[in-house]
Amino acid sequence: MTDDSPIPEFNPQGPQLVYVAVADHIAARIAAGELAAGARLPAERDLATEYGVAYLTVRRAAGVLRERGLILTVHGKGTFVVDPLPEEIAPHRA
């Protein structure tokens, strides 16, 4: 990622739970428009590899994102960013 990216680098430290850090980072990617409304998220196993965490950590992070109303999982199809995005998370275009 570049220095001018609105998405912070993923670097979980301190008391924050790793699955919450993953959820927060994916939410930041959605807010920045990197993951657009209606976009399909990569498979949980691929996200686990990308973030360097266990598969179940990503699965738990997905649960947090579902609770926040940011993603929707369709059995047999995949996990998608909700469309339309909630007003407070929608990317702000200049």
Strand order of the largest sheet: 1-2
Shape: globular
- Uncertain runs: none
Taking all residues together, what is the mean pLDDT? 87
Radius of gyration: 13 Å
- Provide the helix percentage: 25-40%
The number of distinct β-strands equals 2
Q: Number of DSSP helices?
A: 3
Largest sheet composition: 2 strands, antiparallel
Q: What's a concise summary of this model?
A:
The protein has helices spanning 18-31, 44-51, 55-67; strands spanning 71-74, 78-81. It is mostly helical.
Keywords:
about 90 residues; mainly alpha; two-stranded antiparallel sheet; 3 helices; about 10% strand
Please, could you describe this protein's structure?
There is one protein chain. The protein has 94 residues and is mainly alpha-helical. 37% of the residues lie in helices and 9% in strands. It has helices at 18-31, 44-51, 55-67; strands at residues 71-74, 78-81. It has a two-stranded antiparallel ribbon with strand order 1-2. Helix 1 packs across helix 3 and helix 2 crosses helix 3. The radius of gyration is 13 Å and the shape is globular. The two termini are 20 Å apart.
Layout of helices and strands:
Blueprint (H helix, E strand, L loop, with lengths): L17 H14 L12 H8 L3 H13 L3 E4 L3 E4 L13
Antiparallel strand pairs: 1-2
Helix pairs in contact: 1-3, 2-3
